[in-house]
Design goal:
By secondary structure, this protein is an all-alpha fold. It is built from six helices and no strands.
Length: 169
């Protein structure tokens, strides 16, 4: 599974997208393996993990904060790892993404512009509350923003979490 995450991170880093052919096989493979290895109970566990993976990133996708491929990649983690591990991998990925984002901001030397943009986005989320409008504004803003291919934090954060919890041994 870690190999798929690394592959997704490499593709996302190069193309700013995680392709459907990768995420589809990742999710379906996890569901099929769970069903084969543990029957109905394991399939339900895998479906619950897929749901957790979707739910964690779907709100950000809905407002234009990330691509659908990133959401489907986290759903793939859920299909293979179940709900509890997926939640831990999500938290770890969010922390890694925040750290990478901070490094990108500091490296740009334009932290004031990024701080103002962060405040603007926060204000829009609180005041507009319409996901379609927020996604539209995010789309307009993407041309002027540094973008973080979020497949990278998902891969790094998930693999770190797996290692931290002893799953890689």
């Amino acid at each position: 599974m870690s190999v798929i995450l690394v592959e997704a991170a490499i593709i996302d880093g190069r193309q700013l997208r995680v392709p459907n052919w990768l995420t589809f096989h990742f999710v379906v493979g996890g569901l099929a393996y769970a069903c084969w290895a543990g029957g109905r109970e394991a399939l339900l566990w895998s479906l619950a993990g897929t749901g957790v993976g979707l739910i964690t990133l779907l709100p950000l996708y809905a407002i234009g904060g990330m691509g659908a491929g990133d959401v489907k990649l986290m759903a793939g983690v859920g299909a293979w790892m179940g709900p509890a591990t997926t939640l831990g991998a999500f938290v770890s990925s969010a922390l890694v993404g925040g750290m990478i984002g901070m490094v990108m901001i500091v490296a740009s030397g334009d932290w004031i512009r990024h701080w103002v943009m962060c405040q603007t986005i926060g204000h829009e989320i609180v005041s507009i509350r319409n996901p379609s409008r927020l996604a539209e504004l995010a789309g307009e803003r993407k041309k002027t923003m540094m973008l973080l291919p979020y497949g990278i934090p998902i891969a790094v954060g998930s693999i770190l979490y797996f290692g931290w919890t002893g799953m890689l041994t």
